[in-house]
Amino acid sequence: MKKPGVKDRIIETASRLFYLNGYNQTGINQIIDEAGVAKASMYQHFRSKEEIAVSYLERRHRLWTDSLMKRISAVDAPQDKIMATFDYLEQWLKEVDYRGCGWQNIITDLPVDQTRIREQAVFHKNEVKEVIIDILQQAYTTEKATVLGKQLMVLMEGAIILSQIQKNPWPIQSAKEAGASLLEI
Amino acid sequence: MKKPGVKDRIIETASRLFYLNGYNQTGINQIIDEAGVAKASMYQHFRSKEEIAVSYLERRHRLWTDSLMKRISAVDAPQDKIMATFDYLEQWLKEVDYRGCGWQNIITDLPVDQTRIREQAVFHKNEVKEVIIDILQQAYTTEKATVLGKQLMVLMEGAIILSQIQKNPWPIQSAKEAGASLLEI
Amino acid sequence: MKKPGVKDRIIETASRLFYLNGYNQTGINQIIDEAGVAKASMYQHFRSKEEIAVSYLERRHRLWTDSLMKRISAVDAPQDKIMATFDYLEQWLKEVDYRGCGWQNIITDLPVDQTRIREQAVFHKNEVKEVIIDILQQAYTTEKATVLGKQLMVLMEGAIILSQIQKNPWPIQSAKEAGASLLEI
Amino acid sequence: MKKPGVKDRIIETASRLFYLNGYNQTGINQIIDEAGVAKASMYQHFRSKEEIAVSYLERRHRLWTDSLMKRISAVDAPQDKIMATFDYLEQWLKEVDYRGCGWQNIITDLPVDQTRIREQAVFHKNEVKEVIIDILQQAYTTEKATVLGKQLMVLMEGAIILSQIQKNPWPIQSAKEAGASLLEI
DNA sequence: CATGAATGAGTTTTCATTCAT
DNA sequence: CATGAATGAAAACTCATTCAT
């Protein structure tokens, strides 16, 4: 039982600050101060701020999808899993005071050269989309599952960003209703 | 027919830069250089960078909604107007190379104290939502129009942000399909 | 009678520090501290440290060649002017404690991308060479003056760098002797 | 026949980097990376970066003078040996793309406290000067050899630094001509 | 109403060196 | 004899804003 290593402390601190305050609003100095690490130690583990962000998004992808998988594994029927996904969004976003999606937030106002961050966002959204489609394939043909999955994915993304702007859960509820309609539940 | 005044030149230049390059990526110096005005002249018209952003969003709201209204006024049936809205999104986003929504982009990574920008985003999204609901009230009860309008609004927001991440129009097409399903077209 | 402007103070301070301590050994902070200028003020006048160095070398070229011209204008015969040039080197280098040549010193250990500094060094040395050749053309054919001028130029460069390494005037005296031999004085 | 030890690998790597890229432009990290040794291993063998530079210059002195001696041993007459020295300079500098003299390059922009490096430069230049004088003593009195040797030494130094600035062999050729004149060849 | 010089506090990144193992 | 993590200090540069004219 030892205290977490420097690299982990940096990632955890940066994850918190990047998500809550934003990537551009979070300086290297704040990260190292709050992580209790020397600046050069940080640059021993990460080549650049962008690389920290990539680690942040990789970690976030693991945690976020794990949470989602856990939640939807509690129910069996594909339609129930989709509804559970909307419930998951609602609960998560409420807990973080509608701070929105880490990937959406970071790519919207990014220095042009930081392409690895963009790749992370594309990857994450594709992975989530595949999860949705996989669920639907238990009830529909592959073709139908793909069509529906994309529609549900769009609904979820809209629910996240709109609830962030409005600081209100109604977009998530509307998305859930719309999702139910599309699934003809 | 005279050349635009200082204030307008600043707003126009800032609008272009804020939207295309991002709010945090655009410095005051770049704005005044490209607008061809002195720094202190700029601060005579705007108290702060945030205030320029507010003017940018006000102007953008006018232009964006005008374009939308013009587009949907070309058709009569409420359902057609909704479909035209999706077509409008698709064309617009293609033209700007899927640069996304000016309001979404600016609020996701913002200093905490810049509340007036947030207010602009809330206002804009509410206005657009009201436009959608107004259209639907021509075909449905107020209650039904409100419910459907919110769902369509969520779809549109998701289409914008997801097409931005993927640099691809498929989310807009999926949103349109889903919108058609919800309207039972 | 007003105090010198910020830009001049920066150039003068940087000139002193670059020459006496070296380009790499002189940081931006030291320059602005000793010049009594804010960092951003400095960057308003100079785009980069390299640009300060270019201004330093331009200024140094003016001052250095002016001093030389003044010295050699005191005598008439071309051979005397050349000897006066060696005397000038000897006196100058003694006064600066054999700190050597500003252009030699700056190009020998320079970041590869700073090409404008290299251009300054090439320019300065060519100008000095032309001064020498011009003098000799008063006594020799253009061809002979060119050949001899290059040889004298090499002697002078060697005298400067070798007196710098040895912290001793003997290389300048040897160069003067050799110069006299070459001119058959 | 075994692979070179850690210390030698460091010296060889540092020699290459210090000479080709410059002392200030070469970081400790680059040296240990390219030498494939751990940082603390390096500091086991060398107290500081300066000490590596001293070893680099010691090694360079051996290699450089050995090459020169080999070249001039091919001819017998003292005057031919001097001419061969100029030829050696020309060939060497062309091969290294006129990168100049390792000692000149390192002392011109150095932290003031690194005196041991300066000592190396003084030592090397004196040794070379003595080589020249020794050659000349085969044809002249000691006094005459000393006078001429110093003049030739200045010419060579000038040829090296000026060919470095101009990235051109003309200063070496001019130095050779001047040397021939001084030797009355 | 217009100007450009000046600023303090910030940014990200790199340096040579030391220490615990 | 070897290691890689950790460091304080410094590097060059940019930010939004203010002020005297």
UniProtKB/TrEMBL annotation, chains A, B, C, D:
SUPFAM superfamilies: Homeodomain-like (SSF46689), Tetracyclin repressor-like, C-terminal domain (SSF48498). InterPro entries: Homeodomain-like_sf (IPR009057), HTH_TetR (IPR001647), Tet_transcr_reg_TetR-rel_C_sf (IPR036271), YxaF_TetR_C (IPR054156). It comes from the Bacteria. Residues 27-46 bind DNA. Signal peptide: none annotated. The keyword Transcription applies. GO terms for molecular function: DNA binding. Gene3D superfamilies: Tetracycline Repressor, domain 2. Keywords: DNA-binding, Transcription, Transcription regulation. Residues 4-64 form the HTH tetR-type domain. PANTHER family: HTH-TYPE TRANSCRIPTIONAL REGULATOR YJDC, TRANSCRIPTIONAL REGULATORY PROTEIN. This is TetR family transcriptional regulator. It comes from Poritiphilus flavus. The lineage of its organism: Bacteria, Pseudomonadati, Bacteroidota, Flavobacteriia, Flavobacteriales.
